[in-house]
Amino acid sequence: MITKRLLLVAGLVFLTGCGVDDDQLSVFKATVTDHTFVVEARGELLPSESINVLMPNTVNMPFNLVWLIPEYSEVTVGEVIARFDDTELRHMRGSSVVQIINQQRLFDNHARMSSAARNRIDHEQVRVGGEIDIAETYVEVDPRLFSRNEIIDAIGQLDYLGVQSDFYVWQEDTHEQRTTAESSKLVAQRGASESTLERTDKALSVMELTSPADGTFVYARTRWGEKLTRGHIIYPGGTVGLLPLKGKLKAKLFVPEVDAIGLAPDQVVKIRVDSAVEQEYDATVTNISSVASAPDKDDPRRYFTVEAKLTQVDESVMFVGSSVTARIVTGDLDSAILVPQQAVFFEEDRAFVYVVEGSKPVQRIVEVGRRSPTLVEITNGIQEGDSISLGDPLTADS
Question: pLDDT over 90 for what percent of the chain?
Answer without folding.
Answer: 34
